[in-house]
Amino acid sequence: MTQIPLRDALERAAKMEHSAADYYAKAAEATRLPGGGDVFRRLAEAASAHAKKLQGAHEGVGAEGDQAVEFDEEVEKKTLNPWPEITTLNAHVFALKNEGGSSSFYTQLANSTSSAESKKLLEELAQDEKSHHADVIGWFDNIDSGIAKRET
């Protein structure tokens, strides 16, 4: 964990979302599991939307942007450097870890800023990521149910 200006944190988070969107778009084409393409396309669209919101917040943050916030560089590293080979398994594990980790990442950022506008955005993103994580788990549960039915 390191302290960086809020302005920089917003910019770096936008880059993380862009990276995730690119990865998810590629994963949508690579996955072979039922419904996987749709799940990854939705995640790619959501990550792109998050990147735009974060970039807008970065550009409009004003003087509050100089405030130091807690930034988790490990989460950033994992998001910017996912597995180089996009396999069905790698993509799904990345989605589970990334969406769950991003929820905690945004909650932690929100808790470390006094900027009401940035706090509101970061809390919204944390909730979105939590929902995405639940969606990925739900999709896995559906696949698991289908496998169990075929085996009985």
Descriptive keywords:
single chain; 152 residues; mainly alpha; Ferritin; two-stranded antiparallel sheet; 5 helices; 2 strands; 78% helix; 5% strand; disordered C terminus
Characterization of this structure:
The protein has five helices and two strands, in the order βααβααα. The protein is mainly alpha-helical and 152 residues long. The protein has one domain (2-145): Ferritin (Up-down Bundle), CATH 1.20.1260. It has a two-stranded antiparallel ribbon. Helix 1 (6-30) runs antiparallel to helix 4 (88-111). The longest helix has 36 residues, at 116-151. The model is unreliable at 147-152 (pLDDT under 50).
Amino- and carboxy-terminal Cα gap: 48 Å
- Give the number of domains: 1
- Put simply, the count of helices is 5
What share of residues is helical? over 70%
Summarize the helix and strand pattern as letters: EHHEHHH
- The pLDDT mean sits at 89
Side by side, the strands of the main sheet go: 1-2
Number of strands: 2
Q: Indicate the radius of gyration in whole angstroms.
A: 16 Å
CATH class, anyone? Answer: Mainly Alpha
CATH homologous superfamily assignment: Ferritin, core subunit, four-helix bundle
Could you say which structural class the secondary elements and strand pairing correspond to? Answer: mainly alpha
**Poorly predicted parts:** 147-152
Shape: elongated
CATH architecture: Up-down Bundle
Fraction in beta strands: 5-15%
